[in-house]
């Protein structure tokens, strides 16, 4: 039985085949998967297609590609109909569980966000990423640049492009969880910064009630102004709020200082406020930890007019693979 | 004490004044309010400014405009800091409460969505709106066209533009509520239509956890394909899901037939399914009523490349003011 993640990809491939007329090749399926938010290269797509063939859900059709079988149609319609529609919070919990990053030893696997850009934009992108990190609106100064043709996890970076991987703030939640603190990443939002201080949230979306990642919503609606914040100290940037039980507050604070020693930054409110937190309601008996989002560097690139494809919560990656930006 | 709606506008005006350098005129404030999603004309803005003057929060500064007073800064920062950040569900409940539409007599006030377009696009827009209505993806065939310079509720339609008002599906929720059924408009989503049948939800956002209207999110991310549905019978359109207690199911069904007699359409699942509803989880003891969104006609205009400004849940309006499209 494949894991939930693989399961979702298999079903999406069946959907693509079902929605098309006639056979479809692996390259075209991979492209369509990417368009739908599944980060899968051609090679990995072929691997998934073989799994589907083995189960009798698809079959080869000449040299050109695959078609879906009646059994595959059945499978798609019934057994897993609700599978595609996952709330972002489910994915968050999967990744919190997968993280093994330990700030005490600065080792283990961290959650990363990935952003694809054109290779020709790389130099000016790196400059901007540095500025966002230095100003404190990212999570970590660490970065991995993956060149065209190389594989990033299951993916081949397309020709002419590079993939950038940066720390995702969910790493913080993973660390709190592993230290036994029940943590609930509640809202993704937009926070107004004034004179380099987080002033108040102006928009939020609950991760538990959305199938679209709030960070992508705010970036694609052009609601961020990270560049303006770098220049003037004021504007709108992406941030997250998680809730923990009030009685875990002291433990959480110790973990936050450890995270800072391990160069994990971006937390701008660590249970200092009782509720509400900068305008956002917090549940009774809970307190809120707010951090900037690891997507802010990529939002800045988008604001510059650079063509970006941002995939929050892409994967876990060993921290050794990421190098300091400096 | 002004109502919550007015309160929010007053605070937003204070914010605009606070964020600007020096005095600001009413026209510029009105423009900025519109940009921030507050649907207020210049005349109405002047009225609100007088309210702020009376309270000592703003004062006139020469002929050019208003400035915020220290008292106004205080007011803005403390008393009402959480006011701007409202969940969409709060606004939904305000409008459900305001609706007085009675399908039995076809009278009363219905909730409307408003869309501003350029006047030169009006003719081809009307054609498309008709097609969306005839295909069954709108709520009602009724429409109000408000010409430039005329007032729509508190607003003057800007020069060169017209405002289109159509039935909002929240009207259905208002009717259920007024007949004593506890109704909870839960998700705004995107539904895949195949051969003119609603097949499954592919994305949802919980109205209770978002400060941005999901309909605006899906339209601005270009995720709808209403035109394609009109042409081929398949594609993605906007829809809503509300939950009611299972034991209110029979009552709700009677109300739904009354709504149909009063030309209120678009409900494609009226508690037929037990949970989940086309891929979306429904709470235990509840059943779901799914309807197409009143925003679909405006989504179709956006897909045509027409410049639209869509304001879901804009106002309540007497049904007599809207005329049948035919």
Please describe what this structure looks like.
Two copies of one chain form a homodimer. With 326 residues, chain A is of the alpha+beta class. Chain A has two domains: 4-77, Orthogonal Bundle (Arc Repressor Mutant, subunit A), CATH 1.10.10.10; 95-326, Alpha-Beta Plaits (2-Layer Sandwich). Chain A has helices at residues 4-19, 26-35, 42-55, 70-77, 88-98, 122-134, 170-178, 214-220, 226-232, 249-261, 296-303, and strands spanning 58-61, 65-68, 109-118, 142-146, 151-152, 155-156, 161-167, 184-194, 197-206, 235-245, 267-270, 286-292, 308-318, 323-324. In chain A, the strands form four sheets. The first copy, chain A, has a five-stranded antiparallel β-sheet. A five-stranded antiparallel β-sheet of chain A has the order 9-8-10-12-11. In chain A, helix 1 (4-19) packs across helix 4, helix 2 (26-35) packs across helix 3 (42-55) and helix 5 crosses helix 7 (170-178). Chain A is globular. Chain A starts with a helix and ends with a strand. In chain A, 47% of the residues are buried. The interface between A and B is medium-sized, with 26 and 26 residues.
């Amino acid at each position: 039985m494949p894991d939930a993640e693989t399961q979702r990809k298999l079903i999406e491939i069946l959907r693509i085949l079902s929605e098309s007329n006639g056979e479809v090749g692996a390259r075209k399926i991979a492209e369509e998967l990417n368009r739908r938010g599944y980060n899968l290269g051609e090679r990995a797509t072929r691997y998934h297609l073989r799994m589907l063939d083995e189960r009798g859900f698809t079959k080869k059709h000449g040299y050109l590609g695959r078609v879906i079988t009646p059994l595959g149609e059945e499978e798609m319609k019934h057994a897993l109909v609700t599978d595609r529609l996952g709330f972002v919070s489910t994915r968050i919990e999967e990744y919190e569980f997968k993280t093994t990053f330990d700030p005490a030893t600065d080792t283990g696997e961290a959650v990363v966000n990935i952003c694809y850009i054109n290779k020709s934009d790389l130099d000016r992108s790196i400059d901007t990423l540095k500025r966002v990190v230095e100003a404190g609106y990212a999570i970590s100064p660490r970065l991995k640049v993956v060149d065209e043709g190389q594989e990033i996890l299951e993916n081949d970076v397309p020709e002419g492009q590079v993939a950038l991987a940066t720390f995702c703030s969910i790493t913080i939640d993973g660390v709190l969880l592993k230290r036994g603190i029940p943590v609930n990443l509640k809202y993704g939002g937009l926070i107004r910064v004034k004179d380099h201080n987080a002033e108040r949230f102006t928009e939020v979306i609950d991760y538990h009630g959305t199938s679209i990642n709030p960070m992508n919503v705010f970036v694609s609606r052009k609601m961020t102004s990270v560049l303006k914040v770098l220049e003037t100290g004021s504007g709108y940037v992406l941030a997250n709020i998680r809730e923990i039980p009030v009685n875990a507050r002291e433990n959480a604070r110790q973990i936050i200082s450890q995270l800072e020693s391990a160069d994990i930054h971006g937390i701008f409110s660590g249970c200092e406020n009782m509720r509400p937190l900068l305008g956002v309601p917090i549940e009774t008996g809970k307190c809120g930890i707010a951090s900037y989002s690891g997507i802010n560097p990529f939002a800045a690139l988008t604001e510059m007019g650079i063509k970006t494809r941002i995939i929050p919560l892409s994967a876990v990656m060993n921290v050794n693979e990421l190098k300091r930006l400096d």
